[in-house]
User: Which sequence fits this backbone?
């Protein structure tokens, strides 16, 4: 055990305090601990981890006194007083926002981290982030002409021969998996990031990370090529660096947290409480370690659904990854999750839910049964024999038979387009306005699939020999990005889509009012006290033919309408829906439609009430049933 002598000076936060810095770090392993000697009578020594020991030595001043706030030393980690812990954790955000500098410590020199920080310094010095939410960047004012390419998203990053591997290894450090760092980085008024003996400005690091995530790379930039797992590492780093106050909602929390780790499941909530949107802050969730994780999670889910009048929270519910004893309609925020569907419209036509809380475990919601799952293909079961082996084999598996096409009333090209709309819709150029020039169009995605179906085998070598155009390989890259940690499901009546791997044949596909995506439900043998059927939420899904509100609009939906993400603002006359830049694009009249109430009324469905902010669209059950929609109630447990 290492002995380290340190003088601690105690100050109350409300009193005038000296200028101080705050340390942001990963505790690391409890093995090989060190002792810190403290100049107090009530606790003369404190045990710290080896990583903190190294950090203290790194930041120790050559002379004079340096004031640093460090959680392991400034918070009583062994206190049994819950109220004390609640109050200490509740002020963490104030501590980091008031610090003169947040010191991000990644650990000692390892895996060429000095090269990584030097590269990040060069990139980050020459770009600025215009929009943290979208990752929009540009070259800095006064940037030399030779360095302006960093701010041009149309130009590939100029790296080859595995030059980005050192950066990747840096991002794999335990620090970036720690849940609390999101708040600590986002609230920093100024910060530095250190690894070994190299230090760069925190804003420079954040700028560089956004740039490296946003821009395309050459395949040689990484030693073993780019892969879905690699994209997940970059996505996690981008989310961490782009976080700002108001970024989090309880609906997107599980997706944005990704694989963030913490020792206490309740900290998945408390670690980002300062970054919640105003509406989520208003739900009244307070830092309280006296309640169990199960009670905390269920209470949040109930409040979100009732007070925000939305079932969007179901988008974070996956039965297969649930570890806590909580209702299936409550997200298990304690588990990691990286897949998010990001719908471009609403399967329920933006109609708000008909929701009743029956008891602590059951809620009643209204919706429509659409179809049932016939086949579920877990993508992770495919063997990756080559870079594109999984994508090629999956596409080959989805090749339709003549009898299938006849039963569905589709041509092979229409089936290919349907697959693309279901599995990779938001990645095609057609789903964006204006259309990005560097992204393949729907027709190219569909053509790529037909090319694969035309061969007798799916050996990657065959297509390399055919000299396929670059867009063919770009299509496969996009497929790999979308098909990570998911199952491809095929349903009755020719429906196809993406869902969680826990979905099974026989599960029911429903569209629930208040939820933007179809929901996979599983009937249970248990019933309510009055013998009504109960259901479990298995997963949500992205299913072609249901994402545009077809279950509500029915045959009234014009064939020339398509859902898009757009880059227009209120000032340009295009209003956001649910705080998102999404709309229906009328390709015949070349206009965007952003009023869901107007759409419903044009189809003969009476709207009782509609407000944009916060979103609320009330349609009575009688109006829906009168329009021929077979609405029914589901008891979710």
Assistant:
């Amino acid at each position: 055990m290492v002995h380290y002598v340190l003088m601690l000076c105690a100050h109350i936060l409300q009193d005038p305090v000296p200028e101080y810095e705050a340390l942001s770090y990963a505790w690391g392993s409890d093995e090989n601990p060190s002792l810190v000697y403290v100049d107090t009578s009530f606790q003369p020594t404190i045990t710290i981890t080896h990583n903190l020991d190294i950090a203290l030595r790194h930041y120790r001043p050559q002379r004079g006194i340096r004031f640093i706030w460090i959680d392991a030393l400034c918070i009583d980690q062994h206190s049994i007083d819950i109220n004390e812990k609640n109050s200490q954790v509740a002020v963490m955000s104030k501590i980091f926002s008031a610090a003169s500098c947040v010191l991000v410590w990644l650990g000692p020199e390892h895996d060429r981290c000095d090269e990584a920080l030097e590269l990040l310094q060069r990139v980050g010095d020459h770009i600025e982030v215009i929009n943290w939410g979208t990752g929009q960047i540009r070259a800095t004012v006064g940037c030399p002409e030779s360095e302006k390419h960093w701010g041009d998203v149309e130009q590939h990053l100029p790296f080859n021969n595995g030059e980005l591997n050192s950066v990747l290894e840096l991002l794999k450090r335990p620090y970036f998996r720690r849940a609390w760092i999101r708040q600590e980085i986002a609230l920093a008024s100024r910060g530095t990031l250190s690894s070994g003996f190299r230090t760069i400005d925190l804003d420079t690091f954040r700028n560089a990370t956004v740039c490296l995530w946003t821009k395309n790379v050459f395949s040689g930039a990484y030693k073993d090529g780019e892969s879905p797992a690699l994209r997940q590492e970059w996505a996690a780093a981008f989310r961490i660096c782009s976080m700002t106050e108001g970024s989090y909602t309880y609906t997107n929390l599980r997706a944005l947290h990704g694989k963030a780790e913490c020792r206490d499941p309740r900290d998945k909530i408390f670690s980002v409480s300062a970054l919640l949107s105003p509406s989520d802050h208003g739900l009244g969730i307070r830092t309280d370690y006296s309640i169990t994780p199960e009670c905390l999670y269920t209470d949040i889910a109930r409040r979100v659904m009732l007070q925000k009048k939305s079932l969007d929270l179901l988008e974070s519910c996956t039965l297969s990854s649930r570890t806590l004893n909580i209702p299936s309609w409550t997200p298990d925020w304690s588990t990691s999750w990286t897949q998010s569907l990001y719908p471009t419209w609403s399967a329920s036509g933006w109609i708000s839910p008909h929701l009743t809380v029956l008891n602590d475990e059951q809620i009643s919601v209204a919706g429509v049964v659409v179809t049932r799952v016939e086949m579920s293909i877990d993508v992770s079961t495919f063997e990756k024999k080559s870079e594109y082996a999984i994508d090629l084999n999956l596409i080959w598996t989805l090749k339709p038979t003549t009898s299938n096409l006849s039963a569905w009333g589709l041509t092979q090209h229409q089936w290919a387009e349907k697959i693309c709309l279901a599995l990779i819709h938001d990645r095609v150029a057609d789903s964006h306005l204006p259309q990005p020039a560097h992204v393949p169009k729907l027709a190219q995605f569909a053509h790529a699939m037909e090319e694969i179906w035309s061969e007798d085998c799916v050996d990657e070598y065959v297509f390399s020999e055919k000299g396929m155009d670059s867009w063919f390989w770009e299509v496969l890259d996009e497929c790999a990005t979308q098909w990570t940690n998911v199952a491809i499901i095929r349903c009755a009546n020719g429906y196809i889509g993406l869902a969680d791997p826990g979905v099974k044949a026989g599960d029911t596909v429903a569209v629930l009012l208040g939820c933007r995506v179809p929901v996979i439900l599983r009937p249970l043998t248990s019933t309510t006290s009055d013998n009504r059927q109960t259901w479990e939420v298995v997963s949500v899904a992205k299913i072609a033919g249901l994402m545009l509100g077809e279950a509500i609009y029915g045959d009234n939906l014009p064939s020339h309408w398509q859902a898009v993400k757009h880059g227009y603002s209120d000032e340009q006359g295009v209003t956001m829906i649910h705080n998102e830049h999404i709309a229906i694009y009328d390709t015949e009249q070349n206009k965007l439609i952003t009023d869901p109430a107007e759409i419903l009324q044009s189809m003969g469905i009476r709207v009782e009430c509609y407000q944009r902010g916060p979103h609320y669209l009330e349609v009575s059950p009688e109006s829906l049933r009168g329009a021929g929609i077979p609405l029914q109630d589901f008891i979710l447990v």
